[in-house]
Design a protein that fits this description.
466 residues, alpha/beta, six-stranded mixed sheet, Protein-Tyrosine Phosphatase, Chain A, UDP-N-acetylmuramoyl-L-alanine:D-glutamate ligase, 16 helices
Length: 466
């Protein structure tokens, strides 16, 4: 560890050194997180790399939930169209590599290491005061440019803070939904930050269902000269039970793909897609001609509806059911009341399809993540649908943009018991999972693990040990 610190310090002092290896870079990034309050650092990095952000088409996806899922579905659509799309996710659970994907394939350790050294070296030599998120964002832009992607999909992790991805001039801006996270939640401040991406050339679309939010967004888009697209209303017909869980995210992904293909793809070097689910060739728009009908009958092709009914999210830790061993385990990184509500709906739908003998819950979260009243309401909903155990446990402190101390699980146990809801406190995730496995020892039992990325990480570490 001392050698790593010395090598990093030499880099900061611009002394001759060998490049950092993968583990050293991870240590460097882990040590350099801070809340971004300006876009100065990312703009300085972009200038050094010859304004790479302006040489690619980008779409930025914002909101309080569903961002990663929307990006994931957009990637699936683009792959079906034969296009190449880069996705920059946030946050990660196990490794930084999870943040960088092209056509749903993660970046290799070697490429990650090379890119990180390139950006860190520039930041140190030019004395640019960068945070880890600045470095990761610039790495993503370089990675996507070097691989000549058609479109970069950037997830905006910030609500109150300024995320470096907001520096990019987005062709398309999409908002999943914006809901209060706490009683002190300032919706106006959130919109003020995430709507900074709107320019006179930006197409804007949202899946938000709150009328007041839609009105605010519409006014901001018009004031900035952006191009307003009607909000998403429908649920895309995904395989059960994902239509209810992620149907609106899939519909938003479809609109993003439509906007890009119709307005940008054919105006650049990418050319025209001849066999497209989204962009129908002449003769197939509206009522097809007789000739087009004959061609269609002789050469049947997959329709958009068929694509969706055979599509489910394969993004890890978003309603992911692990079936390898008994009991069944459902992982979901729900870290807001909105996400928790959606998760519990999914558990209920899953139980309709499969009659479980036991359904229990292990939840671990960050300090201040849930308001007591909102949390109790959701736990009451869960307890009415299952007679299983509700286990609350602390989590280990995490590193990253959402790094916070563990919640006080005993406080939550007391609050739920005061509301006449039976919960139990455990000293650690390992203890809670070990105890629940004793009574959930077959494939007709389900343990739901949720509340944060941190508790998902603890489950994965537990599996590695055993």
């Amino acid at each position: 560890m001392v050698q790593i610190e010395t090598k990093i310090q030499n880099k900061k002092n611009s002394l001759p050194h060998s490049p950092l290896n993968y583990n050293e870079i991870v240590h460097y990034l882990d040590s350099n997180w801070s809340v971004t309050t300006s876009l100065l650092a990312i703009s300085q990095l972009d200038e050094h790399f010859e304004f790479i952000s302006k040489k690619m088409d980008t779409a930025i996806i914002s909101g309080t939930s569903g961002k990663s899922t929307t990006i994931h579905f957009t990637c699936k659509l683009f792959q079906e169209e034969g296009l190449k799309v880069g996705a920059f996710y946030t946050p990660h659970t196990q490794s930084y590599n999870e943040r960088f994907c092209i056509n749903n394939e993660q970046i290799s350790n070697k490429s990650f290491t090379d890119l990180a050294n390139k950006v860190i070296q520039v930041a140190q030599n030019k004395n640019i005061n960068t945070s880890t998120k600045d470095i990761l964002t610039m790495m993503a832009l370089i990675f996507f440019k070097e691989n000549d992607v058609n479109l970069c999909l950037l997830e905006n992790s910030g609500t109150f803070a300024l995320d470096p991805v907001l520096y990019c001039q987005a062709k398309i801006a999409a908002i999943t939904r914006v809901v209060p996270l706490t009683a002190q939640y300032d919706t106006a401040a959130v919109f003020s930050n995430i709507m900074n991406i709107i320019t006179p050339e930006t197409y804007f679309v949202s899946a938000d269902q709150i009328k007041q939010n839609i009105q605010i967004m519409h006014q901001l888009v018009e004031s900035k000269g952006g191009i307003w697209s009607m909000p998403i209303r429908k649920l895309t017909p995904l395989v059960y039970p994902f239509e209810q869980l992620h149907g609106r995210c899939a519909a938003l992904a479809e609109r993003i793909a439509h906007l890009y293909i119709d307005n940008f793809l054919h105006k650049n070097k990418s050319g025209v897609i001849t066999e497209s689910l989204l962009n129908k060739p002449k003769g197939l728009r509206g009522r097809p001609t007789l000739e087009a009908k004959k061609i269609s009958e002789l050469n049947p092709k997959k329709t958009l509806e068929e694509f969706w009914t055979k599509t489910a999210t394969t993004l890890p830790y978003r309603f992911q059911v692990i079936k390898n061993d008994a009991p069944l385990v459902l992982l979901d990184n729900a870290d807001s009341i909105d996400s928790l509500t959606n998760l519990f709906l999914g558990v209920r739908l899953l139980a309709y399809k499969q009659q479980f003998k036991n359904i229990s819950l292990i939840i671990g979260s960050h300090e201040g993540q849930f308001e007591d009243e909102d949390f109790i309401k959701q736990i009451r909903y869960f307890s009415k649908k299952t007679a299983g155990i509700i286990a609350l446990c602390p989590i280990k402190e995490t590193i990253g943009e959402k790094a916070k101390a563990s919640w006080n699980e005993q406080h939550m146990v007391n609050a739920t018991k005061a509301a006449k809801i039976k919960t139990k406190s455990y000293k650690s995730f390992d203890e809670s999972f070990t105890q629940l496995k004793k009574t959930h020892n077959d494939h007709n039992s389900l343990i739901v693990i949720t509340g944060s990325h941190a508790i998902i990480s603890e489950y994965l570490n537990y599996q590695e040990v055993v």
